[in-house]
Specification:
Layout (H helix, E strand, L loop, with lengths): L1 H35 L15 H10 L19 H5 L1 H10 L2 E6 L2 E6 L2 H9 L5 E2 L2 H6 L1 H4 L8 H11 L5 H5 L2 H21 L4 E4 L1 H17 L3 H19 L13 H27 L6 H14 L9 H33 L1 H15 L6 H6 L1 H13 L5 E6 L3 E3 L2 E3 L4 E5 H4 L3 H4 L14 H5 L19 H18 E5 L7 E4 L1 E4 L4 E6 L1
Parallel strand pairs: 2-8
Antiparallel strand pairs: 1-2, 3-5, 4-12, 5-8, 6-7, 9-12, 10-11
The structure holds protoporphyrin IX containing FE.
The site of protoporphyrin IX containing FE has 26 residues, from helix 8, helix 15 and helix 22.
Cofactor: heme
Family: Belongs to the cytochrome P450 family.
Pfam families: p450
């Protein structure tokens, strides 16, 4: 008997070790060899951690974004922060060219800045490209198997459910709620300015984050928005915990167990809060908001014959609510922060954008038609998203062998397009690529860039951001209302330091001096 047990355990151990060996050594080596045979080079990886040690070494060697006093502006903003945050990408591009491979742990990446190949990838709409599987594993508590991290038929079904609710026509109907919520935040700012003798110094990031959470909560949860707000507060805490494990290397996470326990606890709380709202909805379903759409998507999911898209209704609801929050809240808030920072550093553009807002709105509050006419503000937001895109990478996993240009990318490779690098390339944007110049967007993206596909703050192809109309509308509402009520400059306490924390954010916040316009 003992002999049988020993042989079973031994057998199991051998299978386990073989699996580990394949996962950590053989598979990555095979993928690398397939790329090398096609002339693609890259740094040599170590067995367990790939190129992470080298990435950390290069990050440690570069000087951080220079400490800036406001006298140094606007030149300091032109600083090439992508080469400070991701110095290894620049170094390897110089060494190995515009398509090179490297690895984080056992994940094999193909970094692409070759514009022809980027163009081909952005035009690919097949299901052969999906979201990297590690996304749903590493960020499971935050994303689960929702629209952001899923692939194939499950993703297609979720997209079909969610996208129509965020089409431009629907978004137009949300302008009033955006105006109301923003006006209430600005009343608080106005009171602070009055109490502080006419000029107030405000760190705007937290306020903008709450504002964005309020707006998305109202858009998503309709009349249940106060419960939505509570859920979003918890999600923010969860996101903060999760971003602690990124160790500055995209796609590689390490979390101490203590953090993991805290994450599980918050995740449980959030899931049951979302399910409570869903349950109420199922009993009274006369609302027509995003939550209702997701609920209907979840119901049709159950009835559908296709077994691969049958995920439990509860999971469908919970994961997609979390995904919408994660995708839409911080990205929009951070873009508002960066836009205001850039307008504060460029008083000429601030005055021009304000003049336009006042000419269009007069003393009325903005509506959808007025927002559409705000061309200068549109240019300012596009230029902000070019210089400071919240998402650093477009990533895809090759789910089958797939050919772009003359290269066959083997199944299992993670394709990675570094958005900020591409959006600052001089060959595409001209010699002033590092400067804030909204004028370049006067004739749209086509007029701004030789290869318009290289402008991708909202991603590319069939996975392009589903909330981009909502985000642009929200940003225009927030910025136009602030411009119409206040003038602002950068506080001397502002320290310009973009940082990578799941998104590209101002590490020490944006501190503005505000006074009544
Ligand atoms: C300035 C604000 C925003 C930026 C910069 C942004 C950027 C992005 C990017 C880069 C992607 C990935 C695209 C790709 O992989 O090709 C994405 C996807 C997505 N975004 Fe946004 N986003 C913003 C706001 C929003 C908002 C407000 C919402 C929702 C209310 C939203 C919902 C989504 C969803 C659901 C996806 C996944 C789409 C899919 O995979 O099919 N985003 N976004």
């Amino acid at each position: 008997m003992a002999e049988i047990v020993v042989s079973v355990v031994l057998g199991w151990l051998i299978v386990f070790l073989a699996h580990l060996c394949n996962l950590l050594i053989l598979k990555p080596r095979l993928l690398r060899a397939k790329l090398q045979r096609q002339g693609i080079k890259g740094p040599s990886p170590s067995v367990l951690f790939g190129n992470i040690a080298e990435m950390k070494r290069l990050q440690g060697r570069v000087h951080p974004t220079p400490t800036t006093s406001t006298n140094d502006f606007p030149e300091a903003i032109a600083h090439d922060w992508p080469s400070t945050l991701f110095p290894y990408l620049e170094q390897w591009k110089n060494e190995y060219g515009s398509i090179f491979s490297y690895s984080t742990g056992n994940i094999q990446r193909l970094n692409i800045t070759d514009t022809e190949m980027v163009k081909e990838i952005s035009l690919n709409t097949s299901l052969t490209l999906g979201k990297p599987a590690y996304l749903s594993k590493d960020f499971r508590p935050l994303l689960g198997r929702g629209i952001l991290s899923s692939s194939g038929p499950i993703w297609a079904h979720q997209r079909k459910t969610i996208a129509p609710e965020l089409y431009m026509e629907k978004v137009k109907g949300m302008v009033n709620l955006m105006v109301d919520t923003t006006t209430s935040m600005l009343r608080t700012w106005g009171r602070r300015i009055e109490n502080e003798g006419g000029i107030a110094e405000i760190t705007i990031d937290e306020d903008l984050r709450s504002l964005s959470a309020d707006i998305i909560s109202r858009a998503c949860f309709g009349s249940d928005y106060s419960q939505g707000e509570e859920i979003f507060e918890k999600l923010e805490t969860l996101q903060r915990f999760m971003s602690k494990g990124t160790v500055g290397v995209p796609g590689f996470r390490f979390l101490p167990t203590k953090n993991n326990r805290a994450i599980w606890k918050i995740e449980e709380e959030i899931n049951s809060m979302i399910l409570k709202v869903v349950k109420q909805r199922m009993e009274a379903s006369d609302e027509k908001d995003l939550l209702q759409m997701i609920l209907e998507g979840a119901r049709s999911c159950k009835e559908d014959d296709e077994p691969s898209i049958k995920i439990a209704r509860d999971r469908f609801m919970v994961d997609n609510c979390k995904n919408i929050y994660f995708a839409g809240q911080e990205t929009t808030a951070i873009t508002a922060s960066w836009s205001l920072m850039l307008l504060a550093a460029h008083p000429d553009w601030q005055a021009r954008a304000r003049a336009e807002v006042l000419e269009i709105c007069g003393d009325r509050l903005p509506d959808a038609d007025m927002l559409r006419d705000m061309k200068t503000l549109n240019m300012v937001i596009h230029e902000t998203l070019r210089l400071f895109p919240p998402a650093a990478f477009v990533t895809r996993e090759a789910l089958e062998d797939v050919k772009f240009k003359d290269i066959t990318i083997p199944k299992g490779i993670i394709i990675q397009i570094p958005i900020p690098v591409l959006q600052r390339q001089r060959e595409l944007w001209g010699t002033d690529a590092h400067k804030f110049n909204p004028e370049r967007f006067a004739r749209g993206v086509l007029g701004a860039c030789k290869t318009p596909q290289a402008y991708m703050p909202f991603g590319v192809g069939s996975r392009v951001c589903v909330g981009q109309h909502l985000a642009m509308t929200e940003l225009k509402v927030i910025l136009s209302l602030i411009l119409s009520k206040f003038c602002f400059s950068l506080s001397p306490a502002y320290h310009h330091s973009p940082a990578f924390r799941l998104v590209i954010a101002p590490e020490h916040g944006v501190i503005l001096r505000l006074w009544a316009a």
